[in-house]
């Protein structure tokens, strides 16, 4: 059946279909490198019509389809199986349209985040989503994962930037939801179903995105906090300062020391301090100086350095972006969790203690977008006495179990994909899961869109949901 589907696709879409040895390896797995696999074929459409044709044929043949963006995902969401068709949006780029009166940008799904940022800048505006994978990740992938990044504390997640969408449904119908207004209460806001749905409900082909004004005077500051309570007080102080807080990133001591060491950089602040806060603020510099002095006088922070140039600001960000080197320098077991901001310090200490109790010498690094309650934790599996699947699973169970007990989320921004399916119940109730499955069934009754992602077993039939 699947081979028939490939033949039908080739007959209709010709050169847009790659099969066998012609399939580049970048389509085998995403940034996790998890379970690499060559799909039956890769379709690389250049128009919404081609996406629609591809979906109609795959639907008719009941052939699984895996939407693929820039393959920078960290949850295994775009990983294909050998009996599936990968639908890559990489050629769906074309020209963008910027409406300066409305402050919107219309982008094709395959545009990279970086190209979108540049298009907004060329029009004197700004697309405020930013993350380390900006050069490769695509707008469609960002929307499908509801990506977060560095500026969520001010602008919200990708969801908050999306005004309209064009989506191809599982059976090939095109859903035109290309709204470009901020206010629109005409019935259900259907686009929300597709944002963060990880390619399981529809294929995103175009989007209308909200733009922000260009940034004014911005300052990059690295502070050393005396403890986690100091971090929280500094956050409150900056939020109420009249300055606009663009980013509030926290690095625990081990992460900071490791990153400075890797870059052979003399640490801008002494490396033996408990916590480091990297902030980006827009506004008056003298006001910022006053706040830092007050925060020091109140013993929230013990030291701070303000970047004096763009180059210095980049150096400070380099410390935080050392995560890009994790795959080559560590055997990383990555966590992307969220918890109420006030308890993150205590949670990190509890996890650290439990890890060391069970696996003495276990090396871990804590960091994250703490301004938006998002903690990242990376455990270096090379530091475990035995680095095997059972140890990985035990560490995941320990961390996610504690996240569930504290009312947190097992995925703050990367999604569930393949890697976190088993732990979804720690953050989602049975009732919510039933509703999610009902939505999946309504939009994709044959279960062909990204099967096996998010849910551990395939969605059940509607009759079982009644
Ligand atoms: C160095 C680095 C830093 C990162 N930093 C961050 C960060 O700060 N914040 C953050 O949130 N993430 C971060 N990520 C993760 C990743 O960049 C994001 O999840 C990103 O949004 C994925 O986009 P992509 O185009 O690469 O999607 P892919 O990896 O190709 O796919 C991701 C998921 O979206 C689906 N999908 C892709 N395109 C479409 C489409 N057009 N229609 C429907 N479904 C689609 C896929 O099926 C898959 O389930 C980082 C990754 C790296 C490697």
TrEMBL record:
What family name appears in the similarity comment?
Belongs to the FAD-binding oxidoreductase/transferase type 4 family.
- Show where the FAD-binding PCMH-type domain sits: 35-214
Alphabetized InterPro entries for the sequence: FAD-bd_oxidored_4_C, FAD-bd_PCMH, FAD-bd_PCMH-like_sf, FAD-bd_PCMH_sub1, FAD-bd_PCMH_sub2, FAD-linked_Oxase-like_C, FAD-oxidored/transferase_4, Oxid_FAD_bind_N
Cofactor(s), names only, from the UniProt record = FAD
Check the record and name the SUPFAM superfamilies matching this protein. Answer: FAD-binding/transporter-associated domain-like (SSF56176), FAD-linked oxidases, C-terminal domain (SSF55103)
Give the source's domain of life in one word: Bacteria
The name this protein goes by in its record: FAD-binding oxidoreductase
Which UniProt keywords are given for this protein, alphabetically ordered? FAD, Flavoprotein, Oxidoreductase
């Amino acid at each position: 059946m699947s081979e028939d589907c490939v033949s039908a696709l080739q007959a209709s879409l010709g050169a847009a279909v790659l099969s066998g040895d012609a399939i580049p390896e970048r389509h085998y797995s995403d940034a996790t490198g998890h379970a690499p696999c060559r799909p039956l074929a890769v379709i690389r459409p250049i128009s919404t019509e081609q996406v629609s044709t591809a979906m109609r044929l795959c639907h008719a043949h009941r052939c699984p389809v895996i939407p693929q963006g820039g393959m920078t995902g960290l949850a295994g969401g775009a990983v294909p199986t050998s009996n599936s068709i990968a639908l890559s949006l990489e050629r769906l780029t074309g020209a963008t349209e910027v409406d300066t009166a409305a402050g919107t940008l219309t982008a094709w799904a395959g545009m990279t985040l970086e190209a979108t940022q540049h298009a907004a800048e060329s029009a004197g505006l700004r697309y405020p989503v930013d993350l380390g994978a900006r050069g490769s990740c695509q707008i469609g992938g960002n929307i499908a994962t509801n990506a977060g990044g560095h500026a969520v504390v001010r602008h919200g997640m990708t969801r908050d930037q999306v005004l309209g969408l064009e989506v191809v449904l599982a059976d090939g119908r095109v859903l035109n939801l290309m709204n470009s207004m901020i206010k629109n209460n005409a019935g259900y806001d259907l686009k929300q179903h597709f944002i963060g749905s990880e390619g399981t409900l529809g294929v995103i082909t175009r989007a209308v995105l909200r733009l922000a004004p260009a940034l004014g005077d911005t300052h990059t500051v690295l502070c050393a906090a005396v403890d986690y309570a100091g971090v929280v007080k500094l956050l409150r102080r900056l939020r109420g300062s009249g300055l606009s807080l663009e980013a509030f990133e926290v690095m625990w001591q081990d992460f900071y020391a490791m990153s400075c060491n890797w870059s052979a950089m003399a640490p801008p602040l002494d490396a033996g301090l408990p916590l480091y806060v990297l902030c980006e603020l827009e506004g008056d510099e003298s006001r910022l100086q006053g706040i830092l002095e007050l925060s020091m006088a109140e013993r929230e922070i013990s030291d701070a350095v303000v970047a004096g140039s763009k180059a210095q600001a980049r150096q400070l960000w380099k410390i935080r972006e050392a995560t890009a080197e994790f795959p080559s320098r560590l055997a990383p077991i990555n966590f992307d969790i969220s918890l109420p901001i006030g308890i993150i310090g205590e949670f990190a200490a509890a996890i650290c203690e439990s890890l060391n109790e069970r696996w003495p010498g276990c090396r871990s690094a804590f960091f994250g977008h703490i301004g938006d309650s998002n903690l990242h934790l990376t455990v270096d599996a090379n530091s475990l006495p035995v680095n095997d699947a059972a140890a990985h699973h035990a560490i995941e169970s320990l961390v996610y179990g504690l996240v569930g007990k504290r009312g947190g989320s097992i995925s703050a921004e990367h999604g569930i994909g393949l890697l976190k399916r088993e732990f979804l119940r720690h953050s989602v109730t049975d009732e919510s899961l039933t509703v999610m499955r009902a939505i999946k069934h309504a939009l994709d009754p044959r279960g062909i869109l990204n099967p096996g992602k998010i849910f551990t077993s395939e969605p059940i039939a509607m009759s079982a949901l009644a």
